[in-house]
Design a protein that fits this description.
Blueprint (H helix, E strand, L loop, with lengths): L5 E12 L2 E12 L3 E5 L6 H8 L7 E6 L2 E2 L4 H7 E4 L11 H9 L6 H14 L15 H12 L6 E5 L7 H16 L3 E6 L2 H7 L2 E6 L2 E6 L1 H8 L3 E6 L2 H10 L4 E5 L2 E6 L5 H6 L8 E4 L2 H9 L8
Parallel strand pairs: 3-8, 3-9, 6-7, 7-8
Antiparallel strand pairs: 1-2, 1-4, 4-5, 9-10, 11-13, 11-14, 12-13
Helix pairs in contact: 3-4, 8-11
Length: 309
């Protein structure tokens, strides 16, 4: 359940690498119990922002407080209440599954017996208990991701940071991770994730912050943003002048965007309005689908989330 308590607060948060500004004076808040997604293409600044939250990367300017603690002067205390699941697979290949967890627990001065107890509970929670004595090389990609998230929970954090948690996983593996994240939220853990997957953000997040070129360009609940910028349905079709003219005539409020040879048509009207027009062009292959967050990003930035510049 989302609380009214602000758990993370950034004001004018800035990060520069030489002359390059990765995060450009952003303000945001994260509330206790919330799941917030940072969305954007590579280089947008989302991962850099998350790294500043867990004190991995120092601020260039601005302020950032986590649970009332200043990341610049109270990093050690912040790290004790934050769990981090990085993009990269940084499990130790020389240790077994459970040994990876036991060794990691030493960073938090967790007694050995307590570390083993927590590790066993986490392996059961993530459906890895049968792999406790396996080598890392024996795990599938999905198992490794679950183990990395399990490791992030060893210190029983208030905040869990997930950087691209399901990148490279097959659909089944992604949904297993999603189910575990939902279960963690029910336990009251605040979750912050970065992702390229719009369906992931829509399924998990109470709110998303869309970033581009180091700036937060929009902020809100996924469905609210979809309704605000796109509507309910999107029609996709190969460009046809007569079809576009008919759409604009019958649906004066439509927005038509041309991408190469393809046309995307947006409307704020209820479901079903496109079907009426489609019947007049039976020889055309039209796709009518639900609007999504990627449509929002396209409208805001003029590009898809996976496009580079």
């Amino acid at each position: 359940m989302v609380s009214a308590n602000v758990l993370i607060k950034a004001v004018g948060l800035t990060k520069k690498f030489g002359d390059f500004t990765a995060v450009d004076s952003i303000d945001f808040e994260v509330y206790e119990g919330e799941c917030v997604g940072f969305l954007g293409p590579n280089g947008a600044g989302k991962t850099t922002t998350v790294r500043m939250i867990y004190c991995f990367s120092p601020l260039t300017a601005g302020s950032l407080r986590v649970a009332g603690l200043d990341v610049t002067t109270q990093a050690r205390r912040i790290k004790s209440i934050v769990g981090v699941s990085p993009q990269e697979d940084n499990l130790d290949p020389d240790f077994t599954v459970i040994k990876n967890l036991q060794v990691y627990a030493r960073y938090f001065d967790i007694p050995k017996s307590e570390a083993t107890s927590r590790a066993l509970k986490l392996l059961k929670f993530f459906q890895l208990e049968e792999k406790r004595d396996a080598s890392i090389a024996e795990l599938s990609g999905g198992m490794k991701r679950r183990l990395i998230i399990a490791r992030a929970l060893l210190n029983e954090p208030k905040i869990l940071l997930l950087d691209e948690p399901t990148t490279g996983l097959d659909p089944q593996g992604r949904h297993i991770v999603w189910d575990k994240i939902r279960s963690l939220r029910k336990q009251g853990i605040t979750v912050i994730l970065t992702t390229h997957y719009m369906d992931e953000a829509a399924a998990l997040c109470d709110r998303v912050l869309i970033m581009e070129n180091g700036k937060i360009i929009e902020n809100g609940a996924p469905q609210q943003l979809i309704r605000k910028y796109v509507g309910q349905d999107v029609l996709e079709v190969e460009y046809d002048e007569a079809l576009v003219a008919t759409l604009k005539s019958e649906l004066p409020d439509v927005e038509v965007e041309v991408w190469g040879e393809q046309v995307r048509v947006f409307t704020k009207q209820p479901h079903g309005v496109f079907e009426r027009v489609a019947k007049k062009f039976p020889d055309k292959t039209l796709t009518i689908r639900n609007a999504n967050l990627e449509d929002v990003f396209l409208k805001l930035t003029g590009r898809k989330l996976d496009e580079e510049r």
